[in-house]
Batch of 3 targets.
Target 1
Amino acid sequence: MNIKKVLLSCLMLAGTLSVSAQEAKTEYVHNPYWYIQLQGGAQYTLGETDFKDLISPNVQVSLGRQFSPIFGARLSVNAWQSRAGIDLTSFQYYDVVSLNGGHAAALKTRDGGQVKWKWMYVAPGIDFTVNLSNIICGYNPNRLFNVSAFIGGGLNIGWGMDKESNWENAALAQAYYKNTGNPENISYAWTGTKVRGYGRAGIAADFRVSEAVSLGLEVNANTLSDHYNGKKAKNWDWYFNALAGVKINLGKTHSTRTIEAPQPVERVVEKVVEKIVEKPCPPVVATQAVVEKQEPFRRDVFFKIGTTNITKTEAVKVQEVAEYLKANPNAKVEVTGYADIGTGNPRINMSLSKRRANAVFNSLTKKYKIAASRIKVDFKGDTIQPFAKEADNRVAICIAE
């Protein structure tokens, strides 16, 4: 009898409340925000003269909007000066000379120098930006260093290229025009005001000082028509800007939210009281069949990050659900979509989980002809994370019974 009491005590101790010690999780939520950017630096305009002669000052002012942790856009105005030139240190030409009472063309060489010129411009445009750090490393508004890329375009409005007053070696340029048979090099020289379209791409690095302020470096390449620098080269003209400046964020860039841990499951085991009563064994009338409850049929259909397409591997699971429903005509299935909490934001993730659940629904009804009345569709976004591994929560869970 003592052994029996010990066994009962152990059973009650093992069946007391079981608590899973999980902590609540805090995550960052991106807030769309505006920003302004002030930058200054230097420009190099592609040309034929010495590198130092093609460097000019450059400034840029931008107003931008960061729509999500990854994508944004900005309206920028880049301006100041561009430079160009050709090297005429030595050029050859034909000159008509008298020879034995007649005339003949003789090849001559003129020793000169470099012809250089400059002009002013202003270039408004729009850029579309991509935060590469958030793509590779995940969203973190407190990261000290962020790398972004951008692509865009706009209009370049230039003025001040005056051949008479602006060219540093006007006499040499005039001699070049006069003495060469086909002076194509500078035949695109222009005056007045010219407006030309341009395309641009570049990369930027930002160093976070506070939530509102960051310091940045930027390099961009700009291309436009061959007429821009006044020199005919039969290819696109280019200028490159290297800029440093400050970026000021307007308003809060992010907030936080707390994801509550799942509630622990209470397991209660009632005390077993044993009472032995001796009775005569009754006659066996019939054998009672024991029916065991069947476990629900479950398949987890996983998705790649940011997608709602069912891959070939996961499509096999959807087929298994369809086969189960066909084999059990009274069975129904519940399809629940989820999204991982580590990427996107609550609004995007709720939409993503809904489209994942609908992708499974459409496959069952259209491809396998399962009646829609046998399918219940639900979606949780990132409010519930059914798996401990973050990537596994990009899923649609199918439970049939």
Target 2
Amino acid sequence: MLKFFLKKNFCDGWDNLFSILLSNVLVIALFAGFGFLVRFAASVNLLVVFAVAIMATGVLMAVVFAWGAVARKIADFNTPSISLFFRSLRESWKTGFLFGLLLGMFVVFIGVSFTYYLRMAFSGKSIGLFFVSVIVFFALICTMAMQWFVPLYFLQETNNFKKCFKKSFIIFFDNAAFSFAMLLYNLFLLLLSFPLFFMLPGVNGITLSNMNALRLRLYKYDWLEEHPDYENDRDKRADVPWDELLAEDKETLGERKLLSFIFPWK
């Protein structure tokens, strides 16, 4: 399943380079604008910096969140449109803004507490090292779980904020190894974004990555619903027939040879 995901995600990204690039330019512009606000807030005091940074993250994530509808369209082998993004922004900005506020508060909390206990650890107090380990472990779990928040909202239209939050952790704990593999892959995309000034793959390229990954992974749960004897058996749950479940998607994607990316008309 992972091999097919990597192939499909690359193909989807390549086929929609312009859409991803254009949306990332908007994110970069917003990020730059908020950077100036944070610098201005720094001349006041640290609490104002935190407040501005959290609010800015909320606004930024509202835009990124709305692009999830476009990512869903791409993941479903369809052609996205600009109107879809604006329609999604109008309908989902509250959820995206709230999610951004949560992320902003999470980053501030982790940053402040990690710095505090790290200083304590360097001063020779073993309790500081213990709490640093706990914070890192907690942050890692939350980061891997939150990868699934945006895809859950758009792939399962009955999910609200609370359900997305809860299901994100359910997906993580049931697919810990896969979630960790996705974290490494997304970190690779993040590192790749630096020399490309975050225009590609950027934030929205990572959003597409998570959307593709969860879309394919949810086939597992559809199959388990049809086979309850497997669902309740921990040993059998690993025996998911991925070749069978991915057959239609593989056929739709087709054979994509290297030359087809360079010369699409051939």
Target 3
Amino acid sequence: MFQKITLLALVLAAVSCQKKETVEKDKIKKADWLIGNWENKTPEGILSENWQKLNDSTFSASSYFIKGKDTLHFETIVLAQLGETLTYKATVKGQNEDKPVFFPSTSETEQQLIFENPKHDYPQKITYTKGVNNTLTAEISGNLNGKPSSEKFVMTKK
């Protein structure tokens, strides 16, 4: 009898782990449209974000702004499904002692991803919106020096 109960407990544990694993991966699947190389060319320079899928629960990206031959901004991004939360982790070279800043998702749909960290100095909110004709709008917003501020970057898939 003891062996049957133990076996039943093990089977139930295995089945429940498999179901949870599927649930965890469902949120990051909504971000599949990010995968690829995105670019915005302006007279001020070129903004690029290059997203790749590392595995079923993690994407990574490099984001940089180049003016002429100078890289004015460089950051690495990890988008990961942690438990039931999709988390955006940004590490900006030369900021925050090169340590990552975490932005948990507050909304994720097939068209838009929103990440927020109200304790961060700026930005407190990062939004990615899937547009038409292979476009992507990245927006950072929040309070900067006590005043509301936001910047939008429209990029095209390459």
